[in-house]
Amino acid sequence: MQEKYIERMHKTSHISGGSAAYVEELFEQYLDDHESVPTEWQDYFKSMADETGPGTSDVSHAAIRAHFYQLANNQKKSGTVSFEHETKQIAVLKLIESYRSRGHQEAKLDPLGLMEREQVTDLKLNFHGLSDADLGTEFQTHTLYFGKEKAQLREIVANLRKTYCTSIGAEFMHIVNSEEKQWFQERLEAVQSKPAYDKETKLHILDRLTAAEGLEKYLGAKYPGTKRFGLEGGESLIPAIDQLIQKAGIYKAKEIVIGMAHRGRLNVLINTLGKKTSELIDEFEGKAEYAMGSGDVKYHQGFSSNVMTPGGEVHLSLAFNPSHLEIVAPVVQGSVRARQDKRRDTSHDTVVPIIIHGDAAFSGQGVVMETLQMSQTRAYKTGGTIHIIINNQVGFTTNKKEDARSTEYCTDVAKVVEAPILHVNGDDPEAVYFVSQLAADYRNQFNKDVVIDLVCYRRRGHNEADEPFGTQPLMYGVIKRLPSVLSQYTEQLVTESQLDKAESTKMVDNYREHLDAGNAVVKTLVENPDTALYFDWSPYLGHDWTIQADTTYDQKALVKLAEEFCQVPEGFSLQRQVKKVIDDRLLMAKGELPVNWGFAETLAYASILKQNNAVRITGQDVGRGTFSHRHAQLHDQKTGETYIPLQHLEGVEKDFTIYDSFLSELAVLGFEYGYATTNPARLVIWEAQFGDFANGAQMIIDQFVTSGEHKWGRLCGLTMLLPHGYEGQGPEHSSARLERFLQLCAEHNIQVCVPTTPAQIFHLLRRQIIRPLRRPLVVMSPKSLLRHKEAISTMEELATGSFKNVIPETEDLDPKKVTKLIMCSGRVYYDLIEKRREEKANHIAIVRIEQLYPFPTEEMGEAIAQYKNLKSAVWCQEEPKNQGAWYSSHHHLREVVSNHNPDLYVDFVGREASAAPAAGYMALHMKQLNEFLDEAIKG
């Protein structure tokens, strides 16, 4: 067996002893992790093992090591030319790997020529023990994809520089998967990163550049100084997107969802999606009309259309976005996943996300990292996103080198998910076209994120009203003298005899004529689109808040449902406390125990599923529930296997999905918003681990959840469950910031509810999906009430009741003797009734408001109408006075009470105003609680 190894090593001239220490190190790495060494070395070491043959024992590591060193020593002693050549062959292999790993750092990426690049010592011949004297020597090239077995070092270096150091700088060696690395090596090296395009392709690229520049010049001349966040300097974006769309169509995609901020957005709307120029002109001239709400500026608007590709018709959707630059990224992902789920597309091929970023925002905004992190998780994966960065090399007025980031590239954050990064010079449109093809092919092949870093510039300032020379004089001195990419490419094609200047002038004139006519200018636009590619929203449009929903459910059917989802597979080993929860639920169904919150909530989901509606729940710890109340996902104590009972209901066609999310609020809530705005037929729920954590998603709440309908006409039925309640757990685990949501309420934009009984959450969740109204629902959900002895309901209340916006006094009081009214919301109700019983204060009626917005004025009036002898009325809340519902709701409360008795004035009872949401010490918490309860009941 040892002889076989000797023979094998002698046959491998580029390895045999020339660099024993290097080979030994590689072999050590190989033993630890096969994937950690280059592919050719994996093949070599594997072939050595294969030659042992069946039935033989492994050759010891020591024997192989001894052979490497013995061979090296023998050859050194002989002083043969063979030894020196083999040593240099190893050096050439290392040089090749250096170009693959670091060639991008010497690539000519900057159209302005201002990018400061450090010399990469790894790419120097002498770093590897080579010199100019070796340039004429032939070496084996079997690890390269140049089509030759051998080549002179001069040719090897020239081809490596063409491949990795010209207009394309490819970063892919940080990827762990060897197949992916090899894929890029082959695709790039086979054509030296510059495929030979035919005349038709080149003219198509020119046509797209003509359109991109033509629109900007048209708008610049027509509306000088008006903000449009033009694409000038980055016009190659338009042929890039065009190629991505056409490639996606070839791969049988049916939909593409695009997200982007401002830069180039109007150009994409006109030249990619086919928005009519006349519609854009109306927006510039202030003639556009909005059917509802406030509307939004033109460079925030979304759009959708259908275009034709070689693979068939494709639906394009450009997401609406606010000015928070990257915040649309997770929203796009949610929309894509919803579309894929509707198509039952588990391979994630039919819907493709494309997100266009700015360089400063990509490296600076945390939501980018959050969105990247969700890319391969079960709950949020979409099969890979194609990211394009319009790299202007300046953020507003922030210089790249000194202040914009701490790493060389704005794309370095994408390495967190091992995304390949294709840097490309924006003034080389054929290189841009090629990397677009690569990106589309990679996404299709590996279903992972890929990044195109379009290194370009902005010809004007941050917007057209800015004067950029004031902050970037050197950069704009170069830009002022630089011909546009269209001018450069036209000259190139004229030089190549692909067209003459008259033809290019005619292309410009033709495009301008189409703009003047006000028509759509996209040639692939489908005028009579396939309506099957659209979702029918008509059942959800035009409904008023007064629309009713029958949330009752046959009690016998509820009992049967409970028996179904309380069953676990035979032999499934439940943890002791969890088993008790399941056993108790069976007793609740039979009426032997009162219904608690977790059981009522689970029954709501089960009944929704039975009535042919799907349910999706995500958030941190939602499977179990942060407070161990839900147990929607069970875990076998012996095998670790999971079981979700609601996925196994008899005769249920719609699916129930529940995922514990990764530790993110901003991106996850953005994702669920995007999902809910795309699929109104599913109850979509995001639950915060604690309600306070919604703070981390405030941008999504402000810019999308509460205002999306009035800015963009986007209906959304998203439900947010935010645990809220003051139990002495300190400032960070008490408040879901109810006051912030109420401050955002206007024009019936959202629903804000504070349910206090299991029956209430049962009917509230059912109401949200059963009635066709699609508006966000914000629920201040409980913590201690999940197990409170009085926060209970009956099966009859679930079966026959409905959600009550107001719950009147529930105890048997004599209305004639009631002289004081306490209005409240949430868990403080249970503290109040306990205190009332202690004090035997039966002259006080307590009314709960379960829906704070839209405020239930009529129901509130009915709840207090019977009390004719009121002398005082108060609003009691556990939150500090400057928080909670008081400031946003006191005018509603006073209006209702005043209508009942004009002489009554509603006063406040609760904690004093506070900078922090809650006390951090239990003793202080209890002192405050007892003080305001005394004031409410005794005062």
Automatic annotation (TrEMBL):
Q: Where is the Transketolase-like pyrimidine-binding domain?
A: 595-788
The UniProt entry, under InterPro entries, shows: 2-oxogl_dehyd_N, 2oxoglutarate_DH_E1, DH_E1, KGD_C_sf, ODO-1/KGD_C, THDP-binding, Transketolase-like_Pyr-bd
Q: Cofactor(s) for this protein?
A: thiamine diphosphate
Q: Which reaction is this enzyme known to catalyze?
A: N(6)-[(R)-lipoyl]-L-lysyl-[protein] + 2-oxoglutarate + H(+) = N(6)-[(R)-S(8)-succinyldihydrolipoyl]-L-lysyl-[protein] + CO2
Keyword vocabulary terms for this entry: Glycolysis, Oxidoreductase, Thiamine pyrophosphate
Name any one GO molecular function: thiamine pyrophosphate binding
The EC number(s) attached to this protein equal 1.2.4.2
The protein's matches in SUPFAM superfamilies, at most eight in alphabetical order, are given as: Thiamin diphosphate-binding fold (THDP-binding)
Which BP terms from GO are recorded? glycolytic process; tricarboxylic acid cycle
Q: Return the CDD domains for the record.
A: TPP_E1_OGDC_like
Q: Which GO terms describe its cellular component?
A: cytosol; oxoglutarate dehydrogenase complex
Q: What does this protein do?
A: E1 component of the 2-oxoglutarate dehydrogenase (OGDH) complex which catalyzes the decarboxylation of 2-oxoglutarate, the first step in the conversion of 2-oxoglutarate to succinyl-CoA and CO(2).
The protein in question is named: 2-oxoglutarate dehydrogenase E1 component
Lineage, top ranks: Bacteria, Pseudomonadati, Pseudomonadota, Gammaproteobacteria, Oceanospirillales
